[in-house]
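Workshop exercise sheet. Pairs work together: one partner reads the sequence aloud, the other fills in the structure field after running the prediction. Swap roles for the next sheet.
Pair: D.N. / O.F.
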Amino acid sequence: MRVPETMRAVRITAHGGPEVLELTEVAVPAPHAGEALVQIRAVALNNTDLWTRDGAYGRPEDPEARSGWRGPLDFPRIQGADVAGRVVAVGAGVDDGLVGRRVVVDPAIYDSDGPDANPVGLMGSERDGGYAEYVSAPAERVHDVTESPLTDDQLAALPTAYGTALGMIERGRLREGETVLVSGASGGVGLALIQIARARGARVLAISSGSKIDAVREAGAHEVVDRRRDVVEQIRAAAPQGVDVGLDVVAGDLVGEGLPLLREGGRWVVAGALGGYGVSFDVRRLYLHNAQVIGSAMHTPTHFALLMDLARQAAVRPVIAATFPLDQAARAQEELARRNHVGKIVLRPRAGRPTGGGLEDAV
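Structure field:
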């Protein structure tokens, strides 16, 4: 197909609130050697979009510094890590057979070429992302999912949320028959954790509240703990023998409260700080019980390849809370920040996208 010279994109030119998101016309990126150009059908939102926009990640030497995911951002930056679409062109050295294929892009920038490489950067932060009509990406990070029965919206919901969830589960060494506790259960990562842990044969306890509890149960949680009541008391009642693995995107006080709930040799995996990044706990509960606190930032290439196998088989089915057109990216981020939804919020950049937006347009 003929690729246009320009495209619409939403980018930020400084840290700040939703007002720093600007819809503009920019050049379509030309795929360099080893790259593919993807026409974007759907791009999912993540909490990292909000934190990157706000500059809320801090730096090792200054936790309060305004910073992107792994350091200062190069502005202007097109946000958006989670892309599903079709390949429309390739650069030198890339098989032409990829053109026309339906794909999902692995958004991670890795520290090496190995299968267990660590993510040290992210599309939409350290390089331009998917709040646009086209994006270029290394061809080795573009995964063919043409045969998947999942919708474009569902495919776009996978990379960060389900990649993060799978990375947490793999690093936490979750085994069949174990009891797992999931915090932030109604969010994108939380629902992914529930679905994947349940599929692995674990008993799933989830923390949620209010009207979201039923949706969390429908996602596969065996028991739901209401965070508006005494969380520790409810967990002890639901799992009197203790929890094998904590899968935590909240952190804050929950880490100190949760460690004593682990069984001998238990693992507490942290991949977020929605409840605050300042954490304290009784270290005796750590070493006397051979427990582990594990940090988990997204996924490895091996994890992502496994996730794409699940996508091709539709073994996981992301919940889509709402869809918005590209020009309503700020409104979509505001909806994300309110945390009133269950599942993923998705932008649709292509022509012919809906003119409405919001939870009434949920898919």
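Discussion prompt: Residues 158-171 form the longest helix (14 residues). What would you look at next?
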